[in-house]
Specification:
By secondary structure, the protein is α+β, with helices and mostly antiparallel strands. It folds into five domains: 450 residues, Rossmann fold, CATH 3.40.50; 79 residues, Immunoglobulins (Immunoglobulin-like); 72 residues, Sandwich (Immunoglobulin-like), CATH 2.60.40; 71 residues, Immunoglobulins (Immunoglobulin-like), CATH 2.60.40; 94 residues, Macroglobulin (MG2) domain (Immunoglobulin-like). The protein has ten helices and 62 strands. Strands 4, 5, 6, 7, 11, 14, 15 and 16 form an eight-stranded mixed sheet that branches. It is elongated. One of its GO terms (biological process) is proteolysis. This is Peptidase S8 and S53 subtilisin kexin sedolisin. It comes from Runella slithyformis (strain ATCC 29530 / DSM 19594 / LMG 11500 / NCIMB 11436 / LSU 4). GO terms for molecular function: serine-type endopeptidase activity. Belongs to the peptidase S8 family.
C-alpha cells in the first residue's frame, strides 16, 4: 500500500469542501477515445476502423445493459446534485456494480504565462486560437450542456450531440478555454477558438468518430470512487452526507481503482497510439478534498441507505488518482494554488484538493499542473453570468486552452501540427518546479504549465533550444553531440506515445499491483569524453515522498536529464536507445534540448575544394568541410547517400557528383555539388609477379605506352638513372616498378620481382678429402625440381656423372654445374687426394707389426701427419678418434679398407705439443694407444 498521510479532522475537510463546491468537486476524467492519426496509412486506417467497431460494440452494449439494469434495480440514470454536481450512469463493471461519472471542478492566464502568447504579451506573437486550420480541433466532453448563447461565446461554441441539460460546470470550463473576454476578467485561454462540445455519455464512441480532426480535448470528469460527499442527502448534519463507493468485495480498506490501469486506460492508450496527433487532457480529480467522516461516524455505502462505520483509507495522501486518468499517453492535470504579486506569479503550491500519484506501477501522475483555484468564468444561469470556481476541472481547462495556442504557434512557423507526444513533451520540458525542486514528483508531476517557456522553445530566437521528432528502429542507437552554452542548465527531455499496456487483473490479490505497463522502454543519456554519464530522473513508488534522483527510468514514457551547471563550450553526447524488443519494430519519439550553443549549418557545408576538379586514377581526393564538432555529415554521390560521418572529411577515389549535408542538433544544410572527374592513368608492367633471373642474363620488362607518357624505373625503391623508356632490360635480381606521368597525374605499377634462379651449388663429402687406397669418396650436391647435373674433374666433364651424387676414386679438383629453368651455376672446387705412398720397408715392418699388434701409429712422435693402421677380419665401419689425456674427443675419421688392414691419416699439425691417444672401435672392442705430438 502507498504511504498514507495522517487523517484530517472532519471540520478541516468539510470547510475545504464548502470552499470548493461553488462548482462540481470531483472524481476523474472520463475514459476517452481520441483521434485517428492526421496522417495514417491505409492499413493502419483499416485496423483503426476494426478497433473502433469493437470499441463501439463493447461500450454501447455495456451502456444499454446498465440502463436496463438500472430500471430493474431502480438505480438513477442521471441526477443533478447540489452545487451543480451532475452524476450520470455510464455502465456496469465486471462485478455488476454501476459506474457513475461526475465532474471534477483571470488569474489562470497569469499563472501559466498564457497571456504572453497574446498581442503585446512580450513574445512578439498574437495567438487567439482562431487559425482556420484549428477549426474543430479543440473539443470538450463534459456533463451537461454549456450555455451556447452566453455573451462570451459569440457562436464559437457548438454543441455536437443532443444533450439539453444546462450545466454551470460545462459552461465554466468552456469559458476558461475559449471565452472572448467581453468581461476582461474571464478571457479564455484561446479566446478566439472554435470549441466543439459533447456530453460525456457514450464519449468513447463519439471521440473515436471525431478523432481524425481533434488535436486537444478536455475531460474533467470520471468515475465516482472512494469517498464521495453527497450534499444532496437530506438533513443538516454534514457527517450524514458521506458515501463510500469502493468495491468491498475487492478491498474493505481502499478503492482498488486508485492508481489502477483498467480496460479504459488501455483503450485510451490505444486510441492515442493510433492517433499520434491527438492529445487527451484529463483532470487528476480532487480526491484529497474528500476524505470521509470522522472515524466511527456512520456513512453510506454508495448511493444506498446501507451504512457502515468501518475505517477506510482517507484519500488524503498518495495514490488517489482513479482509473483511466492513469493512462500513459494522456496528459493528466492537477491543480495549482498560485501566489501572485503585482500581476506576476511569485510562487505556487499543489492545491490541497488535487490528486496525487503514483500509479500502481509507479509512473509519474499527475503529469502537469494548471491553475486550479479561484478561477472566474462564465456559468449557465444567464447569458452574462459569471462565477469563481476551483478544482482540477478548471486546471484541466486552463491547460487545454493553452495547448491549442501552442499548436497554433507551431503551425504558423512550420505549416503542420505537432504530434501529441511533442506537445506533451514540450510542456513537461518547460514546466515550472516549486521552489527548491528540480525534478518531478508524485504531487506536482513535472511542474506547473509555463506557456511562455514552451513558446520560447518553439520560437527559439536565440537558437539555444532543440525540438526534434524522430523514430528509433529495433536495435538502433541514436547519438548526437551537443555543445552547452554553460549560461543555463542543460536540459534534455524524451517523450513518446507508448503502445497500450495490459489491463491489471481485478482481485483482492492485485490491489496496488506493481506490474509495469510501459511497453517500449526508451532510454536517454548524456555523457562526456571523460566517461561521466548523466541519467534521467526516477521516483521511488515505495517511498513516494522522496525527491527524484537520477537513475534508469523503467516506468515512464517521459524521461528528462538536467545538468545544472554544464561547462561552457563543452561537448556532450546525447544517446537514445531502447531495451528489449520494440513492438512493431519502430518507436516514434520527440526530443527536446535546452541550453545548447547555436549552430549555423549553412557555413558548415562549404566544401574546401570549392569547385569541380579532376582526380588522377588510383589516387584519392580528400573532400573537407568547415565542420562543427557537433555536426554529422551525410555524403552523397550522384544523388545517393554514400556514407555518414562525424568528421568533416571524406576520401574519395571515384568520379561522380558529390555533395554533403551537414546535420546538427539545430539545423541541416546541403552543400553545392562538386563534379569530380577521373583521369584513368594506369601503370602496368609485363611480365608481372615473381620471375627467376639467370646471372648475367637480362629479363625484358615492358610498361604500357601512351601519348605523352614519361617513365621512371626503380629497383628496390631507388630510381634507375637514364631508365626513361617503356622497356627495361635488368640483369640483376630485385623489385622493379615503373611510374608513368601524363596530364599532371602519375601512376605507379605493381612491383615485379626478379629472383635469382639458383644459389651456387656446394659439394659435400661423407669422409673428408683423402681417397683411401683402392677406395672412393662419395660426393653429393644440392637437389631440387628440374635440376640437371654435370660433374667435372680438373675442368673436364665426366660424361657418366649426371646425378646429384658421385663416387670419386681419383684425386683432383672436382666441380659440379647445376642447370635449372634455363639457368646454370658452377660450384666452388673440391680437391681430393690419395693416401700417401708407404715405403717397402714400412710395408714389411707393417706386415710384422700387423702380426703382432692390431693397432699401429706412425710416425710416433708425429709433427704434421699421423697414420693409423688397424687389422681386423671384420667389415664393420671402423672409426678412429684423437682423445686427450682427460678423455676429450678432438677429431674422428673412418678407416678405409685396404685389403688386409684399415687405415687413414690425421693432420696433427695444429695440435699443441703433448701426449694424446688414438682410440679405435670395431664393434666388438675398443683399443687405445698413445702418441706424442712434437
Amino acid at each position: 500500500m502507498p504511504d498514507i498521510l495522517p487523517r484530517n479532522s472532519f471540520l478541516s475537510t468539510h470547510s475545504l469542501i464548502r470552499r470548493l463546491l461553488p462548482v462540481c468537486l470531483s472524481a476523474v476524467c472520463a475514459v476517452v477515445y481520441g483521434q485517428t492519426s492526421l496522417h495514417q496509412s491505409d492499413s493502419s486506417s483499416v485496423i483503426a476502423h476494426l478497433r473502433f467497431a469493437d470499441l463501439q460494440k463493447r461500450y454501447t452494449l455495456n451502456h444499454k445493459r446498465a440502463i436496463l439494469q438500472a430500471k430493474k434495480e431502480k438505480w438513477f440514470i442521471s441526477k443533478k446534485y447540489a452545487k451543480d454536481r451532475i452524476v450520470t450512469l455510464q455502465g456496469i463493471d465486471s462485478f455488476g456494480i454501476p459506474i457513475y461519472y461526475t465532474s471534477h471542478n483571470v488569474v489562470a492566464s497569469v499563472g501559466t504565462h498564457t497571456a504572453t502568447l497574446y498581442s503585446g504579451g512580450g513574445l512578439g506573437v498574437d495567438l487567439k486560437g482562431d487559425l482556420p486550420q484549428l477549426s474543430g480541433r479543440l473539443c470538450i466532453w463534459d456533463g451537461g450542456l454549456p450555455r451556447l448563447s452566453h455573451v462570451e461565446f459569440g457562436g464559437r461554441v457548438r454543441q455536437k450531440d443532443g444533450n439539453t441539460l444546462l450545466s454551470d460546470h460545462s459552461t465554466h470550463l468552456s469559458g476558461t478555454m475559449a471565452a472572448a473576454g467581453i468581461n476582461p476578467q474571464v478571457k479564455g485561454m484561446a479566446f478566439g477558438a472554435r470549441l466543439d462540445v459533447w456530453d460525456y455519455t457514450n464519449d468513447l464512441v463519439e471521440m473515436t468518430q471525431e478523432a481524425s480532426k481533434i488535436l486537444v480535448s478536455n475531460h474533467a470528469y470520471g468515475p465516482v470512487v472512494g469517498w464521495f460527499y453527497n450534499e444532496s442527502r437530506p438533513g443538516n448534519d454534514p457527517n450524514r452526507k458521506w458515501e463510500w463507493w469502493g468495491n468491498t468485495g475487492i478491498s474493505t480498506k481502499e478503492d482498488y481503482r486508485f492508481g489502477f490501469y483498467d480496460e479504459k486506460a488501455r483503450d485510451l492508450d490505444q486510441l492515442a497510439y493510433n492517433n499520434p496527433f491527438y492529445l487527451i487532457v484529463k483532470s487528476a480529480d480532487n480526491k484529497r478534498a474528500e476524505t470521509g467522516p470522522p472515524i466511527g461516524t456512520p456513512y453510506f455505502l454508495r448511493n444506498t441507505n446501507q451504512t457502515s462505520i468501518l475505517d477506510r483509507y482517507r484519500n488524503n495522501a498518495y495514490d488517489v488518482i482513479p482509473a483511466d486518468a492513469n493512462a500513459k499517453n494522456i496528459l493528466t492535470v492537477g491543480g495549482a494554488d498560485l501566489t501572485v504579486k503585482n500581476g506576476r506569479l511569485s510562487g505556487f503550491s499543489v492545491a490541497d484538493f488535487s490528486g496525487w500519484g503514483p500509479t500502481d506501477d509507479g509512473r509519474i501522475k499527475p503529469d502537469l499542473l494548471g491553475v486550479g483555484t479561484n478561477i472566474i468564468s462564465s456559468i449557465s444561469s444567464t447569458d452574462n453570468a459569471y462565477a469563481t470556481l476551483s478544482g482540477t476541472s478548471t486546471a484541466c481547462a486552463n491547460v487545454s486552452g493553452t495547448l491549442i495556442l501552442l499548436q497554433e504557434l507551431f503551425y504558423r512557423k512550420q505549416n503542420y501540427f505537432m504530434r501529441s507526444a511533442t506537445l506533451k513533451g514540450l510542456v513537461l520540458h518547460t514546466a515550472d518546479k516549486p521552489l527548491n525542486k528540480s525534478g518531478p514528483s508524485y504531487e506536482y508531476g513535472w511542474g506547473l504549465l509555463n506557456a511562455e517557456k514552451a513558446a520560447k522553445v518553439l520560437i527559439n530566437s536565440e537558437k539555444t533550444h532543440v525540438l526534434a521528432e524522430r523514430s528509433l528502429r529495433q536495435n538502433e542507437t541514436y547519438r548526437q553531440k551537443i555543445i552547452a552554452t554553460g549560461n543555463t542548465p542543460l536540459v534534455a527531455t524524451l517523450s513518446w506515445t507508448d503502445p497500450a499496456g495490459t489491463p491489471s487483473a481485478v482481485s483482492a490479490q492485485t490491489v496496488d499491483a506493481p506490474a509495469i505497463k510501459l511497453i517500449n522502454d526508451l532510454d536517454i543519456r548524456l555523457s562526456d569524453d571523460a566517461g561521466a554519464t548523466w541519467f534521467p530522473w526516477v521516483l521511488d513508488p515505495a517511498n513516494p515522498a522522496k525527491d527524484a534522483t537520477p537513475g534508469d527510468n523503467i516506468r515512464d514514457n517521459t524521461e528528462q536529464i538536467i545538468i545544472a551547471s554544464p561547462t561552457p563550450g563543452k561537448v556532450y553526447t546525447l544517446t537514445i536507445r531502447h531495451k528489449r524488443t520494440l513492438q512493431t519494430g519502430t518507436q516514434p519519439y520527440s526530443l527536446f534540448i535546452s541550453g545548447v550553443r547555436p549552430q549555423d549549418c549553412n557555413t558548415a557545408v562549404q566544401l574546401v575544394s570549392g569547385s569541380d576538379t579532376t582526380l588522377c586514377g588510383n589516387t584519392s581526393l580528400k573532400m573537407e568541410v568547415k565542420g562543427d564538432i557537433a555536426l554529422t555529415y551525410e555524403w552523397s554521390k550522384d544523388g545517393k547517400l554514400l556514407t555518414t560521418t562525424t568528421a568533416p572529411l571524406l576520401t574519395i577515389m571515384q568520379k561522380g557528383i558529390y555533395s554533403v549535408k551537414a546535420i546538427g542538433y539545430q539545423c541541416a544544410a546541403q552543400s553545392k555539388p562538386i563534379n569530380v572527374r577521373v583521369t584513368d592513368l594506369t601503370a602496368q608492367l609485363s611480365p608481372t609477379g615473381s620471375i627467376a633471373i639467370c646471372s648475367g642474363r637480362a629479363i625484358p620488362l615492358k610498361a604500357n605506352e601512351g601519348l605523352g607518357y614519361r617513365y621512371q624505373w626503380k629497383r628496390n625503391g631507388v630510381s634507375i638513372s637514364e631508365a626513361t623508356g617503356s622497356v627495361l632490360n635488368p640483369t640483376e635480381p630485385g623489385t622493379y616498378t615503373v611510374s608513368i606521368s601524363a596530364n599532371n597525374c602519375t601512376a605507379t605499377s605493381k612491383p615485379t620481382q626478379l629472383l635469382s634462379a639458383l644459389r651456387q651449388p656446394v659439394i659435400s663429402t661423407n669422409s673428408g678429402t683423402v681417397i683411401p687406397p683402392n677406395g672412393s669418396i662419395r660426393l653429393t650436391t644440392d637437389t631440387g625440381e628440374k635440376m640437371t647435373y654435370r660433374w667435372l674433374l680438373n675442368d673436364k666433364v665426366l660424361p657418366t656423372a649426371t646425378g646429384a651424387r658421385l663416387a670419386a676414386s681419383l684425386p683432383g679438383k672436382y666441380t659440379v654445374e647445376i642447370t635449372q629453368n634455363g639457368c646454370s651455376l658452377l660450384s666452388k672446387p673440391l680437391v681430393l687426394t690419395n693416401v700417401p705412398y708407404l715405403p717397402n720397408t714400412f710395408t714389411r715392418a707393417l706386415d710384422i707389426l700387423i702380426v703382432k699388434e692390431n693397432l699401429k701409429l706412425f710416425p710416433n712422435p708425429a709433427v704434421h701427419t699421423l697414420t693409423v693402421v688397424y687389422e681386423s677380419a671384420d667389415t664393420y665401419d671402423l672409426e678412429a678418434r684423437i682423445i686427450t689425456l682427460t678423455g676429450v674427443k678432438l677429431e674422428s675419421k673412418l678407416l678405409y679398407d685396404n685389403g688386409s688392414v684399415f687405415l687413414n691419416q690425421f693432420d696433427v699439425s695444429q695440435l699443441p705439443p703433448g701426449t694424446y691417444f688414438i682410440q679405435v672401435s670395431d664393434g666388438n672392442r675398443t683399443i687405445s694407444k698413445p702418441f706424442v705430438k712434437q
